[in-house]
Amino acid sequence: MSFRTEVRLHMSNREFDVTFPETAHQILFAPGLQRSAFEEKLLPDYIPRCRWFAGKAREPRRFSIRDVIPVSAAPHAARLMLVDVEYADKSSDTCLLPLQFIAGQPAEALAAQHPQAVVSQFAGGILCDAIHDPTFQSTLFTLIASGGTQAGEKGSLVAQRGPALREISDSPPSRALAVEQSNSSIVYGDAIFLKLYRRLETGMNPDTEILRFLSRRGFAHTPDFGGSIEYHGADGQACVIALATGLVPNHGDAWSFTLRELARWFAAHLAGDVLEAAAIEEESLSRAAQLGTRTGELHLALAADTTDPEFSPQPLTTADGQELAESTLASARQIRDLIASKLETLPDLARNLAQRFLDGEATLQSRAASLATPGGAAKIRTHGDYHLGQVLETGGDFVIIDFEGEPLRALATRRKRRSPFRDVAGMLRSFEYAAHAALDAQPFHQAALSAPAAHWSAKTQRAFLDRWLATTSGAVFRAANPKQEDSLLEAFLLEKALYEVIYEINNRPAWLPIPLRGVVRLLEGNVAG
Known about the structure:
Elements: E1 6-11, E2 14-19, H1 24-29, H2 33-46, E3 60-70, E4 79-87, E5 92-103, H3 104-113, E6 118-122, E7 125-129, H4 134-146, E8 149-151, E9 156-161, E10 174-176, E11 183-188, E12 192-197, E13 199-200, H5 206-216, E14 225-232, E15 238-246, H6 254-271, H7 274-302, E16 314-315, H8 318-342, H9 348-359, H10 361-369, E17 378-379, E18 391-393, E19 398-400, H11 411-414, H12 421-440, H13 446-471, H14 482-507, H15 513-523
Antiparallel strand pairs: 1-2, 3-4, 4-5, 5-7, 5-13, 6-7, 8-9, 9-14, 10-11, 11-12, 12-15, 14-15, 16-17, 18-19
Helix pairs in contact: 6-7, 6-12, 6-13, 7-13, 8-10, 8-14, 9-15, 12-13, 12-14, 14-15
């Protein structure tokens, strides 16, 4: 759209008026005066309000544009803007913001349906987050499907096509998913799921790396790798900005599935239907064991290639054990300080458990020093953030998703090889959380259901763990004897439970007893359940 009319840019209650003879896109994205307006007014006003912005707990001080890349050669193509955010504490992030100028009725419709996507209003149109623009969605798909490249002001986009796109060339109908977390997602028909990463880090994203690896090995219980888009900077460094995978038909994640099954089980208990309760419990244990099998198969696949330098197993070392012990002790010290400052404000149950934690701190310190001994085991690439929410229930089976790792950890940390017992510990803790969440949804029957919930938690954890151990028997990442394996599992269960204590005491004090019980139980020598 070429025009010579006034363009009015609304920026934090100010109006900035300029007249240009160029197209709207040239006006908006050209370096110079408009670039300064982006950095000084638009970006500081818009980005901190986005749900995907990870810097809300810090104070952003400066927004600077690293690069602007059109997603195609079309004159009015959306731009991918890479934005460096500097914080008051001297830390920094790089964010990805796809931008599009839309005019006329389409602009009015988008602004009405997705007001949070409007970055700024202009005479004749809006500047918006392009994630909701059908043309942008289609262009991203075409870029990946063609394995093409696209030059920007400084760097370029480089796309790779994967197996899931072999039979698809034209972009299917698409829609952006309404729920945004740390990333944004687009679904194409019933075939492809695309994840657009909003927080960028130089290096290979483990989500892309692991799915591509597993697809090459033919692993059936993760989504097929569909392709990726990387940004290659002028300095030669690269980062992944988008990942496409096959779309997995499912009935929701395993967390929701588990809560539904627990609700059925609780209902049978309350109705006194012993046979129905027994049948539901048997099915729950069977599915927990099935998940243990799939998890073990995943770890076997991740350990299978001894020639790939990014995936070949490596020995667990004494240094690995020391690093875990130091991390555990650091978490314990942080918890001690948090409890000391909040002990009197905690609910009674949480306060009693917190006091038991303080009383057992010396035991925890001595236990941590000898938690993880290598014992001949290997470390491998793992899921990295494994829990029931990272698994899809497909109607009789499971598919494992989201290999990005813990989003707030540095990329280098998320790509590290670890003992797969860390993933196992994460899932065991997730089963315990599920039991509590289901119980929390029964406010009028908690006294009657508390013991059954604990029973279910212990038995499902055991079913999952036993099947994982059976599936991975003899694997390179298994320790030399059961005592050493108990030590590894205990180490990671304690690490996870301490992490949960820190989160809950700061965010959900009412749920603090869940991880505190886990810590106390571990100090008393009970690993699972």
